[in-house]
Amino acid sequence: MTSVTAAAESASKTAPSSKKPRRFLRGEEITAWWFVLPSFALLLIFVFYPMLQAFVISFQNYNLVGSTRSFIGLDNYKSLMTDRDFLASLRHSFHFAIVVIPIQTAISLGLALLIQKKFKLTGLFRTLYFIPVVISTAVAATVFKLIYNKEFGILNNVLKTLHLPTTNFLSNPDTAMNGVIMLGIWKGVGFFMIIFLAGLNNIPQDLYEAARVDGATKIQQFFRITLPLLNRTTAFVVIMTTIDAIKLSGLVFVLTSGGPNGATETAVYYIYKMAFQQMQMGYGTAAAFILFAIVLAISLVQMRLFRNAEH
Amino acid sequence: MNSKSKVVLSAMLACGLLAGCGSKGDNAQPEAGSSSAPKEEKVSLTFWRNSGNDAENSAYDKLVASFNEAHPNIKVEMSPIPYADYDTKLRTSIASGSPPDIMAVDGPNMASYAQAGALQPLTAYFKKNGNLEDIPKSTIATYTYNNEIYMAPLTESSIALFYNKKMFEAKGIPLPSKNPEEPWTWDQVLDAAKKLNDPAKGVYGIDPAQGFGNAGTAAYFKYPIIWQFGGEIMSPDGTTSKGYLDKPETKKALQFFSDLYNKDKVSSLEYPPDPFPNNQLAMTVDGSWSLGNYADKFPNFKLGEDYDIAPLPKETQQAVANGSWSLAISSKSKNADAAWQFVNWVTGSEGAKTYCSITKDIPARYSVANEFPELGQYPKNIFVVQNQKFGRPRPITPVFPQMSEAVNKMIEEVTIAGRNADAAIADAIKKIDKAYADLPQK
């Protein structure tokens, strides 16, 4: 530690000291760096160093409990490109994302509009809609598992009383993903509703007043004032939903364990399975980097799109 | 910020990092030096196991307490870890070089740990004071890899055919024999299942292998069906599945299993919770542990009145998987001798007797089995005799985690997705061969 202080002292001494205010600024700057340093160092040690290490591992044949590792170049990446299970898991993640992003965003915006107005029970409804976010994933998934059950579940009983055909939702590879999607939306909507609510409250009320005076209908107000001014919020919500959706794993873990026949195995679940159940750390890490690249690319494109829309 | 201050900043960061690393290294060395030469000091051992049901947990609590009392210089600290996290946690601890001294490992995972050099061979200890002759040869074989014993068995588990007696009587179906060596054939089972099956009323014929869960469970319940048809999973040396998994008998078993769901429709991909004791399932294949579970949770569902058990069905031969959770010692343990004392305390005759009297499990040792007369009588004799006469290990192979996943996927693809059996089998063989080729060689 002494070496660091010495370095800092010598740095402040060697700095040009002809003008006093400049010297003062410099001192302040250094203090600021001292505040930044601890968190930056932690970030470096606990985030960037492991990432770098993981990147190296992705080029290795590395068995989790084995004592040896060997470099195999791009082999992991090459075999992932033709791995049926990995490609299927990517498809499942995107299926989930493509359905969830528009529906969840629309519902959360709708709910935000509903609870924005101050009525007697607004507080109650705000709480009610937010509760799913607070409930633990494991509990929610376990309860939904019972709801979806064919013989026993409430969902099929409702279908039965409506004289609709019943189905074993989670055991049928064609419908299982829909079961996961419904739970995902149920659980995610509340959080983004709150974000939208904050965005809505930021829109000045006089704009609406002016619109009313000009004779604009509610629908016109929504499309001409609310949506454009919510652009930043919507961008945040869509990007976060995309990232969350592609990273989906916890719900799947409890609800279906990736089944039936891998129909709900998402990319992150696949990576977990490879690395920790099958102990193929190098292979799993390579898959994680492919997913990372995909998520990064999508986020960049989305940010660009929303920025263009703003101007 | 100008370029000079950037340089200063990076220098500061570098110094900080170096300083941090340096001091850590200095501290670590004397620590390692001092603990490698213990002098009459109290030895502390860490022991990890997957936490089980209440009976299992209290049995272990009792054994650890009595060991610590009898050995004043050794202190065993037990950490029960939830089953779902257990394997991941254990593997991470081995990978990071800080495994527990003693660990519980599920039988079929032994070879992958042993091949990686994570386990201490126990053969010499067993020969010294482990009373090896007291354990059936087939059981020891399950825990042997490359001629070394790596785990000390405590209990055995086994599975049997459970059937709803009242449903059988209502349909006038003759009951299967209770003699462990006179099982029904799968055709007889299918015939009965067809008569009992009534999906409109929410009653299904048979759950042949505990549904579709994780690969480990699948291996335990589904491999016996393949063996019963004369099929195989892997070569005896555990290096490849080529020539075994693609045997016509294996394919026949796979087809039969798939037909239960798709052609005959006597099995369902999904059941309500606890279908068997709730009279929604006429037959199921379940383990010895379920007897206690039903007695506890479904007191109105009585053995002998409402249900009975029969040996597992056969096609060309009888077969059942053996191997259970057992204890292993880490190769990194600095106090392996003390660790063996504990392992031998738990899995030796006295310890196993204490354990099995609480959990009602089937003991691995002959001498302990003789202490419990009920093991020679119905219903437990079915499990014991099947295990001793027809028990065989799931393939002993270092690629078990990958192999079981590939085989599980193959069964699911054929049964649930209706994929062509030949293509699914070929895929599984390819995956298993790749996993074996990727094994780190020493």
UniProtKB/TrEMBL annotation, chain A:
Pfam families recorded: BPD_transp_1
Positions of transmembrane segments: 30-52, 94-115, 127-148, 180-200, 234-255, 281-301
Cellular compartments annotated: Cell membrane
ABC transmembrane type-1 domain span: 90-302
Keyword Amino-acid biosynthesis assigned: no
Keyword RNA-binding attributed: no
Keywords for this protein: Cell membrane, Membrane, Transmembrane, Transmembrane helix, Transport
Membrane topology: Multi-pass membrane protein
Broad class of where this protein is predominantly found: membrane
Family from the record: Belongs to the binding-protein-dependent transport system permease family.
The protein's name in its UniProt record: Sugar ABC transporter permease
From TrEMBL, chain B:
Lineage of producing organism: Bacteria, Bacillati, Bacillota, Bacilli, Bacillales
Name this polypeptide is given: Sugar ABC transporter substrate-binding protein
Family annotation (CDD domains): PBP2_TMBP_like
Family matches, as Gene3D superfamilies: Periplasmic binding protein-like II (3.40.190.10)
Organism annotation: Paenibacillus tritici
Signal peptide: 1-19
Similarity annotation: Belongs to the bacterial solute-binding protein 1 family.
The keyword Transport belongs to this UniProt entry's keyword annotation: yes
Entries under InterPro entries matching the protein: SBP (IPR006059)
PROSITE patterns linked: PROKAR_LIPOPROTEIN
Pfam families: SBP_bac_1 (PF01547)
Keyword annotations from UniProtKB, A to Z: Signal, Transport
